[in-house]
Amino acid sequence: MVMSWIWTGILCISLIFAISEGRGNELAGAIMSGSQAGITLAISMGGAICLWTGVGKLMEHCGITQFLARCLRPLLHRVFPGSKKDKVLAGSLSANICANVLGLGNAATPMGIQAIKQMRNPANPSLATDEMCRLIVLNTASIQLIPSTVAAVRASLGCATPFDILPAVWITSLCSAGLGLVVAILLGRVCRHA
Prior knowledge:
The chain is mostly helical. The chain is built from nine helices and no strands.
């Protein structure tokens, strides 16, 4: 709701200044070219998102997510203790983490939503648990080995070498995910004792 007010405010301010400066034609042209570029970008990314969402479902049906859950078990049990008891949760978490590592953030979303639903506290379903907050932090600042979504955007905009950003992506995603996870764990402990 707040974002709709912010966007409405930005639009109104733009209209007021464009009209007062006599640049209404330029604003109309920018609106048309911007909306056209947005549609082009959405269509170019839509195929990749559909592909990787389907791959995620195939991984789940073939048992690959269970295999990944076994491989990631030491990490999952430390960060998400609830995954020790729930194998379905462990599978959803591992699929979500692997999709994020491969840079498929949009394809990881359904798996993350499924994991969040399984983490929900039945006594108070509207309250976010510490594990939910950690998963949100890891999804927001995910470690990406192959930033395929960003590379697809760069390629659609005409970049000849869309993967030349790999070292910067590795360093920044590792730092942001590590720091975010540490802060989430510390804040969870502080809030529990408060």
